[in-house]
Write a structure and sequence with these properties.
4 strands
């Protein structure tokens, strides 16, 4: 049986962590889960919950309800 394997994914690089939160909530089934996003998105799933990373980056990844993978990232420019 053929299984869909996405060879592309969407990367959203943001200027501010608030932008990451905004897009995350839009992709995450209308914001039904908490900001930490431990719950599953509607028909999708969370690979990496939103979290602060070393160096001040803010990062999360999920697959939306259509099977498309997304990476949201905010790089600390200071």
């Amino acid at each position: 049986m053929y299984q869909f394997l996405p060879f592309i994914f969407f990367v959203v690089n943001c200027e501010m962590p608030e932008e990451v939160d905004y897009y995350w909530n839009k992709l995450d089934a209308g914001g039904k889960s908490s900001q930490c996003a431990w719950l599953l998105a509607q028909g999708g799933n969370i690979q990496t919950p939103l979290m602060g990373m070393l160096g001040g980056n803010y990062f999360g990844s999920l697959t939306d309800q259509f099977g498309m993978p997304w990476v949201l990232n905010c790089v600390n420019k200071t």
